[in-house]
Amino acid sequence: ALTVLMKNVPKQMGQYLGDVLGPVWQTLTTSADTYVNTTVNAREDADDPVDSDGEVLGFENLVFSIFEFVHALVETTKHKQLIIQGIADLTYYILLYMQITEDQIENWSNNPDAFVEDEDEDSFAYSVRISAQDLLLALCQELAEECGQGLIVAVGRHLERAASQRTAGDPAWWKTHEAVMLAMGSVRDLILDQVTKGQLQFDLTNFIQSIVLADLDPNFSPFLAGRALWCGSRFGQAVTPEMLDRFLQATVSALNHSPNPIIKVSGVRSVWGFCEYLKGSGTPGALQPYLPSILDGLVTLATQASSEVLSLILETCCIVVSVDSNFTAANVGRISTLCLAVFIKANNDPVLVALVQDVVRELCQNPGCTTTLQTKFIPTLASILNASTDKVPPGMQAVALDMLEVMVRSSTPPLEEPLINVAFPAVVQRTLNTDDNSTLQNGGECLRAYVSVAPDQVIGYHDAEGRLGLQYVVQVATQLLSPATSEHTATFVGRLITVLIRRAGDHLGDNLDLLLRAVLSKLQGAETLTVVQNLVLVYAQLVHSQLEGVLTFLAGVPGPSGQSALHFVLTQWCSKQHLFFGAYEGKVSAVALAKLLEHGVTSNDSRLQDIIVQGDQVFSPECRVRTRSQRASRPEQWTQVPVLVKIFKLLINELANAIDSNMTKDDDEQESEDECWEDDEEEGQTNGDTTLASMFAPSSSYPGYDADTVDEEDDPDAVSDPLYSLDLQQYLTTFISTFAQHPAFPVFVPHLNPHEQEVLQGIGVQC
């Protein structure tokens, strides 16, 4: 209840916080000893109460609630000062709650998969340990400078406490060290940044020497030794060359010689950390003497590992193969054999398949690996595709097509012979001879990759019967567009046709007309927005490159209702434009509409002038919710406007959306800055955003905090299009401002509604 109040009415809660914080703090601190004795060390039985329904109210629930309340307090700017005053003590107790429990030790020792999953930063599991980590990260994000200082004070207290425990013969002393290293490693970037800038007085190298290296001894606890390996790999910047060698030797030993799965898994994590640091710092040579042993350990462990551990191994392999291209080329046979074995065994596991693809992608980009890699993979993938559907596991052929697409996309043209003469015909035949939606979609996407990466080789290909590669691709595209196939098979076919036109348009001949008719036919029956958008964008792309040609084609083909196909396509386009999604797709569509408007106005093209479409919806004066029968008897009413007017209205709407989107981004940035200034004025604290930006970047251990990658376009064909980097707001502002000077502009003004006029006035266009 307190948390809900703090989140929703923080201002009103301010007057009561003095009365609330005392009991909350007392509960947190007095509960710590109980938690350590009953849960962490299991030396006492927990006396958990039972609610009215007979459900046990575990002690953990209380801790979760307190942490959530503190989290809400930290995120409320006005009340951060209350946290700052006691941040060292708060951090001390957070570390107490971060200790490994006896239940976790038992569970993880018997199930390494659970260890990997629970200790992963993206884990969906939840525990007091994870909750404490989350709170520590929140403190570091909101109170960077103070949290760094508080953490170091808390670490010092815990190390003294552990020394006393050890002297007294307490066998649980190591849990304190493990929690300290977990906390330090979790906020590594913050610590390194503040130490480097002199904001934090802490001998990091001595900490690593006296604590981390000393705790590598597996006789204390495999969990402690494993955490020390991980912590060492997190602080590569702070270790001396001699210390680095000791860590790497311990890592290799953990992988190859330790009988304990916890230490082996920690060794894998350590490899990833050191590879990331040494590669990023430009000193990968330090790894070279250890790479053979590292690869031996990873491959051996992979043959025995279950899914979660195997995922970690593959993720680590991906960075290992990127460290030294010569070493990778010399060992590509073993690596590709491992990848192929995992692919065949776990083709129904999307996580493992994606990780295999990541490794294959790295290998394809290494010229010394391509021949061996393709020799290993291509015959097997072709065999899977050529096999009868009932002879392979369900879904395997679709996954094989996806794997081939990765190989084609990642290879440098010209593609080697196996990809063209063995894989390409197998892709074509499988796609032409299946009714499985996933196989059809993946086959189309794979062929798009071929046409995009190696159009000349596709054009030059011919089989024993003399059929050309381009003919096969067109045949696949028309099959994907067939009215007899599911609508969903056409979800991505628009991209295939667009790439065909862009990369091989001069060689299509009459096939272009065939494809455009097939697109038109599919569009007439399409109901799903994704499919409609995909198909409309084929014509939008043609407006960019062949405006007169596409207008002539559509005007000369009859539509479904007796009018021209141009009328049908523009009606569909204009009615759905406001629903289209995707930043790149939005630019393609909006700029194409602008080109159509410009052409229609400047050339007075009767093919466009004569088309009438729906304008604005007409609402009744009552403006009330209508029943189903009322909607049936009185359907929606719309104004009727010339299509060029509708296009202009849509462009104004796109401009408004672009302005709103950019303002939202600016507001978010300004709000962040304002909070920081407010903190500075009220609390005298520094921002620390730069530190946290790096802490939560994708290349670090916390990918979920990086907001800039959420909308990132990963389609290589889109990225290569100049429209991808277009500033749509600037483009539309210039276009509309220029159009407003045209003599035809006054004809459009009476059709504009108040909102549209307001948008125009906002860019200096008077109506």
From TrEMBL:
Domain Importin-9 central HEAT repeats: 87-327
Keywords, ordered alphabetically: Protein transport, Transport
BP GO terms, sorted: protein import into nucleus
Ranges annotated as biased composition (Polar residues): 685-702
Sequence segments annotated as region (Disordered): 662-721
One GO CC annotation: nuclear envelope
Residue ranges annotated for the Importin-7/11-like TPR repeats domain, each copy included: 399-612
Bias-annotated ranges (Acidic residues): 666-684, 708-718
Pfam families, sorted: HEAT_IPO9_c, TPR_IPO11
Protein name: Importin 9
Native source species: Cherax quadricarinatus (Australian red claw crayfish)
Lineage: Eukaryota, Metazoa, Ecdysozoa, Arthropoda, Crustacea
